[in-house]
Write a structure and sequence with these properties.
The complex is a heterodimer of chains A (350) and B (610). With 350 residues, chain A is mostly beta strands. Helices cover 8% and strands 47% of the residues of chain A. In chain A, strands 3-2-1-28 form a four-stranded antiparallel β-sheet. In chain A, strands 4-5-6-7 form a four-stranded antiparallel β-sheet. Chain A is globular. Chain B has four helices and 33 strands. Chain B has a 22-stranded antiparallel barrel. Classes of the chains: A mainly beta (350), B mainly beta (610). Chain A binds chain B through residues 44, 46-49, 71-77, 95-98, 109, 114, 138-142, 225, 228-229, 254-257, 272-273, 296-297, 299, 315-321, 323, 338, 341, and chain B through 199-204, 248-254, 292-294, 331-332, 409-410, 452-459, 502-503, 505-506, 512, 544-550, 587-589.
């Protein structure tokens, strides 16, 4: 039975590779990390031990701190996110106020971007331009000075423009010519017109908006973690053309600021505490998808669309290596493994 | 209510003081029995000669090379916390003239804020002594004291060293009849632009530290007044101010600045009656931290009253009480915090013969919202043979959660329980002559309800989670090989092992930043006016993660000093630290300086009063 499963997976994976190899002639990236999953590990704040781990789901091997292994220097302090554009990976290192650019296939270092960044968070890109959300600097009252999106040219990594947003600019998604930015210290999402480079609308969603995703109908969704102790987490959908809220689902509790989307099941997965919930699009009542009792708490979640698996991470108090669980879409645990300190995000390379 | 309490204490104190009786006393005497006589079986080490601790201006750096304490330092001149016997920083306490001065928000002391030049005596107390000394004393405590002398002396000194370090000190002690005055002043600055290997850049280039400079000023003023044959008053004032650039971890781009100001005023009255000795203390302490312009102010009132019944037959006792009013003005708290704490305690010490003695202490602490346990301790010592003394102590310990643990928003947890522990230790001492002194201590204990901050829905919150077993050995050997050559060596073996914790991966693992092995030694030689000291220090690997998957490697550092103590009152010193140019870290990715040299010159004028 197990063997059969294994072969089936092997066939699926091989088919996937074949289809990629045949269908996508841009796929020229070579190297040990050209396929698989990158796990972003924040590390301990102020300790400079953030890292990126690589997981190969076909043989279930983990390579830790890929950046240091390939470049022999530390990635930095609080690794926030990793964005792929073409053959490059842009690793946003929050408290080092920099972005390390590598060839993602072999993770060899290309450049370090450190200009015009202040508490950088996430990055997206389109048509040769990179968009980096920045919280900006804190003032003496721990209030933010000015959050912004830094626009850079992906050829020379130089600044093109700076677009001021609202406090705590966090996650982003590009839909057509609109860049949506969640402003995590507020209750808004900024919609930026990429042609004019200016804000077309500031949309009120819910408290502490976080990760944005797009569903298969083209609707943009944002998770709102809720105010501290307010039990007012929400999932809010935004019409990407009209820039209007179409649905706002009260989750009746505080939730994590990260969500992920499974298009074939048409479900959003979000979490609170040790529980992952699934919300089917078009419904308003979420169901408990996973209750991970041996976790100390969920810190990150990601859905691997190409290999149909859900990954959930536990930072284990940031006291040592983090844990990642890999599940089938049925909720069956496939594998669990150790990664760096504070795993918070997943990037899937087909 | 608190005010009434203070007034009552005052009234009791002076009421008792009013009765007089005759007793012949020296010019200035400290009458009450030192606290450690009621903590028999515990290991206590006293340094009445501060010079014996080395020549470092910072007490943390000095203790690091001359005691088995692990000082967790975030860089040169940066935050340095105390770690006795594999405990966490807040499970240790710093006492100033008998008062626990640990900050109330973080519950710990930063030794970099305490220049050695401002104290007369340092005592180290190893092991749990909550029963005698109150909350926080789980791993051990450091005691800084001011002491009067009969000398009239005035000292002035200046020094300069590597990486833009300058210091100047002025101190004076005057003895006018029944009044003893002491003033100490220090100012030190350092650019700390030392070079370090930047491991976060390709090729690990040597770079200059650009953000670790500091400037520090400290003043200590003490006055002792012998009112009459039986009454003595003393007043102690302390002010220290540190302005520093917070040294960033390698690879981070922080430009944080922090200013710490500590003000302390303590008034002590001692009455020596025929049948009792009373000690009354009233103090006001204020800690102020300005981090990037964000201000935290923590004032505290303290009063204590103690009555000691001197030895009658084979036993002496004391009972006492202290009350504290803690306040905090911290932005991250929901409004200003005010908290009352009170302790009552008993201590008894019995000497059965010239060879055997025992002590018993009992304490009950009252803290708003907490129920600290009744905390007993039992200790004793016995001379078991010629040159041999054996000691033992068993005790309970507790630590009340810090204000941050309870009030920090978001995350603060008002439902925390105090940490609670059980401890035992035994010390065996051998001393035939100064040719050979040796002692070994075996200790063990368990702390439960250990408070740990962990993230919950991405918000950090503290909980009573861990149970930690601690055990180890401390051994010390000293020898005056000749009258000119002395060596001293101490070795510490520390295990701090987690039992119940948040993850199976941490189970049975050593706590981070607790070295298993430490070997520290000093070789001192003097000839004529010349004094030479060499201090080799070897510290074993320290895990940086709870699952013990990452560690800082073993390191060796060597410090040395040469002093010329000229008869004319001139003292010339040349000090070197990290002569081996070791690339070591005490906290992950916090660079420490390579070799540092410092030259100082000091002139003392002495006039004996009698």
């Amino acid at each position: 039975m197990k063997l059969k499963n294994y072969f089936l997976k092997l066939v699926i994976i091989s088919l996937a590779f074949l289809s990629l190899a045949c269908g996508d002639d841009e796929k020229l990236v070579k190297g040990q990390y050209a396929s698989g999953i990158f796990i972003v590990n924040e590390g301990n704040f102020g300790s400079g031990n953030g890292s990126v781990s690589h997981y190969n789901p076909s043989d279930k091997t983990v390579i830790e701190d890929v950046f240091k292994a390939e470049n022999d220097f530390a990635l930095g302090d609080v690794v926030q996110s990793l964005h792929i554009d073409g053959d490059k990976a842009f690793i946003v290192v929050n408290n080092s106020k920099k972005i390390e650019v590598v060839n993602y296939g072999d993770f060899s270092s290309i450049a370090t971007i450190s200009e015009n960044l202040a508490n950088p968070r996430y990055m997206v890109s389109k048509d040769g331009k990179g968009y980096i959300s920045n919280w900006g600097n804190f003032d003496s009252n721990f209030a933010l000075d000015q959050s912004y999106v830094e626009v850079i040219d992906l050829k020379d990594f130089k600044e093109v423009k700076k677009i001021n947003t609202q406090d705590g600019s966090e996650n982003m998604i590009i839909k057509g010519n609109t860049l949506f930015v969640s402003n995590s210290f507020t209750n808004t999402v900024s919609a930026i017109d990429l042609v004019s480079g200016s804000i077309s609308k500031t949309i009120t969603v819910g408290n502490s908006p976080g990760v944005l995703i797009e569903d298969k109908t083209g609707m943009v969704w944002v998770v709102c973690a809720g105010s501290f102790g307010g039990n007012d987490g929400r999932l809010v959908s935004i019409d990407a053309q009209k820039l209007e809220v179409t649905q706002s689902i009260d989750l009746t509790k505080n939730v994590g600021s990260k969500i992920t989307y499974n298009s074939s099941a048409n479900e959003i997965y979000y979490y609170g505490g040790k529980v992952v919930y699934a919300l089917k699009m078009g419904t308003t009542s979420p169901k408990v998808f996973l209750d991970i009792s041996d976790f100390s708490g969920i810190y990150g979640i990601g859905f691997d669309e190409s290999r149909n698996a859900i990954y959930v991470s536990d930072a284990v108090g940031f006291a040592g290596k983090g844990t990642v669980h890999q599940y089938e879409t049925s909720g069956q645990l496939i594998h669990q493994f150790k990664v760096g300190v504070g795993p918070s995000g997943f990037v899937f390379i087909p | 209510v608190r005010l009434v309490f203070f007034i009552c204490l005052l009234a009791i104190c002076f009421g008792v003081s009013a009765q007089t009786d005759t007793l012949i006393l020296d010019n200035v005497v400290v009458t009450a029995t030192p606290w450690h006589n009621y903590a028999l079986g515990l290991k206590v080490e006293k340094f009445t000669d501060i010079g014996a601790l080395g020549t470092s201006q910072n007490i943390g750096a000095a203790l690091f090379t001359s005691s088995p304490i692990y000082i967790k330092s975030y860089g040169a001149g940066q935050i340095s916390t105390i770690g006795f016997r594999g405990t966490s920083a807040s499970q240790n306490a710093l006492f100033w003239n008998g008062i626990n001065v640990n900050g109330t928000s973080l519950g710990l002391s930063d030794l970099s804020l305490t220049p050695l030049a401002l104290v007369d005596e340092v005592a180290l107390q190893y092991g749990a002594a909550s029963s005698l000394l109150g909350s926080d004393v789980v791993g051990g405590s450091i005691h800084l004291n001011s002491a009067p002398t009969n000398e009239n002396r005035f000292t002035i000194g200046v020094g300069a060293g590597s990486y833009g370090a300058y210091n100047s000190t002025v101190s004076g002690k005057v003895n006018i009849g029944k009044l003893n005055l002491s003033t100490k002043f220090i100012r030190q600055t350092a650019e700390n632009n030392f070079s370090y290997k930047n491991t976060s850049k390709a090729g690990h280039p040597l770079e200059n530290m650009e953000h670790a400079g500091f400037s520090q000023v400290g003043i200590a003023q003490d006055a002792w007044l012998q009112l009459n044959e039986r009454n003595q008053l003393s007043l102690h004032l302390w002010y220290s101010f540190m302005d520093r650039d917070v040294q960033p971890a390698i690879g981070t781009a922080n430009t944080d600045t922090q200013q710490d100001a500590n003000k302390r005023i303590l008034l002590t009255h001692e009455l020596n009656g025929r049948d009792y000795i009373t000690t009354f203390k009233l103090a006001y302490l204020q800690d102020r931290i300005d981090f990037n312009g964000d201000l935290s102010i923590m004032p505290r009132w303290y009063a204590s009253f103690e009555v000691e019944i001197p030895q009658k037959g084979f036993i002496k006792h004391k009972i006492g009480a202290n009350a504290q009013l803690l306040q905090a003005k911290i932005d991250a708290y929901n409004g200003d915090i005010s908290e009352q704490r009170m302790d009552v305690y008993y201590a008894g010490s019995m000497s059965f013969s010239a060879k055997a003695a025992a002590s018993l202490t009992l304490r009950q602490s009252f803290v708003e919202g907490f129920e600290p346990p009744i905390t007993p301790s039992l200790g004793g010592q016995i001379k078991i043979a010629n040159y041999w003394i054996a000691k033992a102590n068993i005790s309970r310990s507790y630590r009340v959660a810090t204000l941050n643990d309870r009030y920090w928003r978001p995350g603060g947890n008002p439902d925390l329980q105090p940490e609670s522990g059980y401890h035992g230790e035994t010390t065996w001492m051998y001393s035939k002559s100064k040719k050979l002194t040796a002692e070994a201590t075996l200790f063990g204990g368990k702390v439960s309800e250990w408070i740990l901050w962990t993230p919950e829905n991405n918000i950090w919150t503290p909980k009573n989670i861990d149970e930690v077993f601690m055990y180890g050995v401390e051994a010390q050997v000293g020898s005056d090989i000749t009258t000119n050559l002395k060596i001293q060596m101490n070795y510490a073996y520390n295990r701090s092992v987690r039992n119940n914790t948040i993850s199976d991966d941490f189970e049975g693992k050593q706590l981070p930043y607790t070295p298993i092995h430490q070997l520290k030694s000093a070789i001192k030689y003097h000839r004529g006016v010349l004094h030479i000291a060499v201090r080799p220090t070897l510290v074993g690997a320290r895990f940086t993660s709870a699952d013990n998957s990452t560690q800082l490697p073993t390191f060796f550092i060597l410090a040395a000093s040469v002093q010329a103590n000229l008869n004319t009152g001139w003292l010339l010193s040349l000090n070197a630290e990290n002569l081996t140019n070791s690339n070591y870290q005490l906290v992950e990715n916090r660079a420490m300086p390579r070799s540092i040299f410092n030259f100082s010159i000091q002139k003392t004028f002495i006039k004996n009063s009698k």
